[in-house]
TrEMBL record:
PANTHER family in UniProt: GLYCEROL-3-PHOSPHATE ACYLTRANSFERASE-RELATED, INNER MEMBRANE PROTEIN YGIH
Gene: plsY
Protein name: Glycerol-3-phosphate acyltransferase
Pfam entry (one): G3P_acyltransf
Entry similarity comment: Belongs to the PlsY family.
Native source organism of the sequence: Planobispora takensis
Segments traversing the membrane: 6-24, 91-112, 119-146, 166-186
Lineage: superkingdom: Bacteria
Predominant cellular place of this UniProt entry's protein: membrane
Length: 199
């Protein structure tokens, strides 16, 4: 129980750090009030450009990575030869990643108004299954170069993650990854619903 509690509480608090809001405040605005109102990397890139948005990209990704790494350590660091999480570390690491995503989506430090948790998911998955993560990055790069669109490449990389994970883990682990991705879908659905609502 202790590793699970540490994973969930620590993951949520890490996820709640409002990186985009803090960076945006340094530039004199609130990302939840401009653009698509999403306090995440993409909205920051649209408002400030790539260079100024890099800290948001790094910070939001590292939330998931640090949460998952902490859970991995407190659960005994059970991994395979490829570095894939296994055994008693699986549940704590998945829960820590989920908690970081929930913290990013509903951050206690930012009035529970957060983003869509994509980068927190990606950062956590880098710990869950490093080889599938690296293959996903390769898919992103190749697709982005082929289409000349980072957005299309990013979608291909993220949506390809469960398929790539099948090469290294049992299907039940992939189902866990799918459950994490459902949270992203929920956040996109909420954003679409809010956009349709009268202001």
């Amino acid at each position: 129980m202790v590793p699970v509690l540490v994973a969930v509480i620590g993951g949520y608090l890490l996820g709640s750090v409002p990186v985009a809001v803090l960076v945006a405040r340094a530039h004199g605005f609130d990302p939840r009030a401009v653009g698509d109102r999403n306090p995440g990397f993409w909205n920051m890139k649209e408002q400030l450009g790539w260079r100024a948005a890099v800290p948001v990209f790094a910070g939001d990704t590292l939330k998931g990575t640090f949460a998952a790494l902490a859970a991995l350590l407190v659960s005994g660091a059970h991994t395979t030869g490829f570095g894939v999480v296994t055994g008693d570390s699986v549940l704590p690491v998945y829960l820590a990643t989920a908690a970081a995503m929930i913290g990013h989506a509903w951050p206690v430090f930012a009035g529970f108004r957060g983003g869509r948790s994509i980068l927190a998911f990606v950062g956590g998955f880098a710990v869950i299954c490093p080889p599938a993560f690296l293959l996903g990055v390769a898919v992103l790069v190749v697709t982005a170069l082929a289409t000349r669109s980072f957005a299309i490449g990013a979608r291909a990389g993220v949506f390809g993650i469960p398929v790539l994970q099948l090469l290294f883990t049992p299907v039940e682990y992939v189902a866990g990854t799918g459950a994490l991705m459902c949270l992203i879908g929920l956040r996109f659905g909420q954003a679409a619903r809010a956009a349709r609502s009268p202001s």
